[in-house]
Amino acid sequence: MREKMKRAISTVLLCAFLVNVFCVNALAADNNKISQELLTVMDGAEDDELIPVWLWKESISDERIVQMLLEEEGIDSADYEQNPEKYAEERKEIVRREYSALNDSFVETYVGKDRKVIYNSRYTSTLVVEATKAEIEAYASLDDVLEISLYEEEIEEPGNDAGGSLDPEISETLRIDYLCKIKEESPDNTYVQSLTEADIIIDYYGTYNGCEAVVMSVAHQTDTTDLRDIQIGRYVFTFDCGSKAERFYVHKDGGFIPVKDAYETGIISEEDVAGIAEAFGSACERKCTYKDVREGEWFYDYVNEMFVKDIMTGLDVDTFGPNEPLARAQFAVILHRMEGMPEVTVVPARKWSDIADNQWYSNAVMWAVEKGIMTGYSHSDYWGTADAITREQMVTVMYRYAKNKGYDVSRTGDVSRFSDAETIQPFAQDAMEWAVGEQILLGKDEGKKLHPQGQTTRAECAAIIQRFTEKYK
C-alpha cells in the first residue's frame, strides 16, 4: 500500500513538472514573437496602458493566390507562367480581396471594439493596433501571428528603416512591390521565396515632381562598407556603401528602375534627376576640374557642359586643351557619343589608308561614314583622321547630322554680312547659312568674320555642340 502511494505521488509530481516545463517553454516561444524593443516598452508600461504595435500574421501563399487567379479567371497555367505580368492587375485584386477579408476577420475576432485600429492593410497580413501588455501576450499566443513589433510614427535615428516615417500605405506599397520584384528575379531561390513584407526595408525615400526615388534592401542583408559614388547626368550621388548605390531606384508603375538606367533611357529627364538630387541630399553637381579651363573665360560654360554630359573629354585628367585644334577623328567620336555610341551595322566597302581596325576612333568613324555624316576626301584613299577639322567642315557635318536625325534645318541666316563670306566653299554653303541662322556658329574678330577654312579649336567645338544641343533638345 505504501509503495503504491509513493508511485502515485511520484506520478503526480512528474506530471506537475512536465506541465510547468511546457508552460514556461510556451511562454518563451510566445515572447520570441515579440521584438526586444517592444518587450522593453512593455516592461515599463502600466497594465492598462495602450501600446501601438505592428502585428505580422501568416501570409497567404503565392501558390494559393495564383491558384485562385487561374480558377476564377479561367487562365491556362502555362500561359500564366510564360507571361505573369499580363495578369498583374487581376492578381492584385485577388490579393486585395483576400487580405482584406483575412484582416477584417482577425480584427472582428480578436481586437476589442474599444481598441483603435491604426492601420489595416489591404494587401498584406499586417495590422497596427493599440493593445495592453496582456493583449499583446494574447496575440503572441495565436498560431497565425508570426511577429509583433513596436509601431513608431517617426524614426529619427539615421540608418533605420525610412519606412517607419512614411504613410503606412506608401510604405506598404513599396515593400510589396519590391518583394514581388526580388521574388520574380529569383524564382528558384528558397530563401528569397520565403521572405515576407516584414523583411523588406526602405533605406531611403524621397519624392520629386510627385514621383518617388528609393533605396530598398532586405533585412539582415550584408552591405559593403566602402563609400560609393554614382554619376547620373550632371550629378554625383554619394552612398555610405556600394550595395546601396546598386539599389537606388525610381519607383514607377509598381516597378523599380535603377535611377541611372531610367535617366540614360529617357524615362526620367535631367530636370527629374535635379529633383531627385535635391530630395536625396547627399548629391552634388559635377563640374570640370581642368586646370586650363577657369571660370570667367568665354568657353568655361561650354566646356563644363561637355564634361558633365560626357560628350567631350580632356587630353588628360588635368588638361582640356581649349586652344588646341580638333582632329576629324576626334569630332567623329564626339558625335558618336552624342548618339549613344551605337554599333556599326554595315561596314563600308571603301577602305582608307589611315583608318586601322580596333583604334579608339574606328567604330565612331565607321558609324559616321555609314550614316553619311562624314566622308573621306574625294578621289583619295586618305580619310584625314589626324587632320584638324575646319570650321566649315564641322558645320557641314553638324548639318548632315541634324538632317539624319530628322531635325528641322529650314531656317537660314544671311552670311553676306561677314566680310569673308565669299570664301565659303560650295559644299558648305547651305550648312553655313543654317548654322548662322540658328546662331550655332557665331563670327570671330568681333563678329566680322566666319573664318570658314580656319581650324576649329576644342573650345569652339564645345561651344558649337552645346548651342546645337540647346537648339535641338
Short description:
The chain has 473 residues and is α+β, with helices and mostly antiparallel strands. The chain contains 17 helices and 11 strands. The strands form 3 sheets. The chain has a 4-stranded antiparallel sheet with strand order 2-3-1-4. A 4-stranded antiparallel sheet has the order 5-6-9-10. It has a 3-stranded antiparallel sheet with strand order 7-8-11.
Low-confidence stretches: 1-29, 154-160
What Rg, in angstroms, do the CA atoms define?
A: 34 Å
Q: Which percent band covers the strand fraction?
A: 5-15%
Structural class: alpha+beta
Total beta-strand segments = 11
Count up the helices.
17
Largest beta sheet: what is the strand line-up? 2-3-1-4
Helix and strand succession? HHEHHHEEHEHHEEEEHEEHHEHHHHHH
End-to-end separation in angstroms reads: 105 Å
Please outline the helices and strands.
Elements: H1 2-31, H2 36-43, E1 51-57, H3 62-73, H4 77-82, H5 88-110, E2 117-120, E3 126-131, H6 133-140, E4 145-150, H7 168-185, H8 190-194, E5 200-208, E6 211-218, E7 228-232, E8 235-239, H9 242-245, E9 248-252, E10 255-258, H10 259-264, H11 270-280, E11 283-285, H12 300-308, H13 328-338, H14 362-370, H15 391-404, H16 429-437, H17 458-471
Antiparallel strand pairs: 1-3, 1-4, 2-3, 5-6, 6-9, 7-8, 8-11, 9-10
